[in-house]
Amino acid sequence: MPKHLRQLQRSALTAAFVLCAAVAAFAGDELVLKDKDHKDIGTAIGNLIEAEGKDSKALAKARTALNDLIVKIGKATKKANDPAGATQAVLALTNDLGKAIYHVETRKMSGIRPGELAAGAIDDGDDADKLTYAVWTPKTYKANGEPLPLLLFLPGMKEGKPYSAKQFLIENWVDAPIHEKAILVALDMPADTSIWNVHRAGDEGRVGGIGIAMRVFGRVSGLYNVDYDRVYLVGVETGLQVALRVAGTYPHHFAGVIGQRGDTEDAAWDNLRNVPTWFAGGGSGCTAWEEKTKGAGFDNCTLQQDGKDADAWAWALERKRNASPSKINLVLGAPVPFGAYWLLAEPTEPSPGTRIDAEVDRETNKLTINARGVKRVTVFFNDLMLDLDKPIKVVCNGVEREEKVARSFDDFLAIAKKRSLCDGGRVYVASKLYDLPPPKD
Fold first, then answer.
1. Tens of pLDDT along 225-243?
2. How do the residues of the chain divide into helix, strand and coil, expressed in percent and rounded to 5?
3. Which CATH number fits domain 117-317: 3.50.50.60, 3.20.20.10, 3.40.50.1240, 3.40.50.1820?
């Protein structure tokens, strides 16, 4: 495998694939802990991450401090008095832990100019492509304030050349209600339009449109106070195809895809069961997309032929990311996608028909996995998906068994210590590897 593909596969595992949770689709999504508890837990996790680069004594001290804090908070919930029970009580509070993750990193105002259009760049050295983008933050933006929605724009062409990111934000999406409530980021797309719909291209591994979108998303979400449950891709004209491919590869990151004056072309819809789409001024492909997704039971595509920016924004405000959906449809690719939401397939060389269809049902406490071309999968658990206090019925390609999946402080830390595996509002407290028998049909 070429070096740049190996790097992509590794980064897809550690930087792009995110373990997801905390949505209102499941019961028990209310917050129990206080804001101070969220901040204290997040700060303690941050201290533990910082201690990783120090000596073992500092690391042990940080881990003990976090453990003691969780036990103290758990006892205060009056669910348990013993340390183990108190820890379990906190680990069961998925949404509270997700809130805590927002406090792991301390975002600063330094270098950010609220109320102004600013330029941004990612430059990894002489041997890497320099990626540039433009960003708008509201005048009221605060690094430690309420997280804001993020609109990530993939502009199309203008006068035969890629639309300048800065110029795009000067000329589009300028309505005051949007500028006052959201962070807007536009990408500078490559001059070579043939690489817009790929991660990387050629032996030299030039970064393609999908790669640019994910790199910039990672940078911006680390610098700015982003609401991870309200990240929307906006594809304009030829940028729509890229936006749909980004969402289809990493559906667990996005609350929706907005398309303006573009067409879907040959972008696949299979992986977007849980990512709604809104199309305005689109071609026949958008109409076909709506028909196909509705026929598949998704019913999450909105066509508004004469829709304006304000209409798209109103649509977005009504939708939050479904980060731990009850159903997942995943068509695997090479090297990505090989995971989404709470499911990760063992990396493979997929052939046509390689896919996973999985479902969790909290009412019956049942996990069902049907897969073709996949031998092993890892499932990540939290109490919004299934009740981890009770046995879980697991059905893999028709073979059924019952088991307990225990919450684990170590599993929680393994996720929370890695920014690539956890973002604000999403956390898991257990994981399990399953060997899949061959499908029966």
1. 999 999 999 999 999 999 9
2. 35, 25, 45
3. 3.40.50.1820
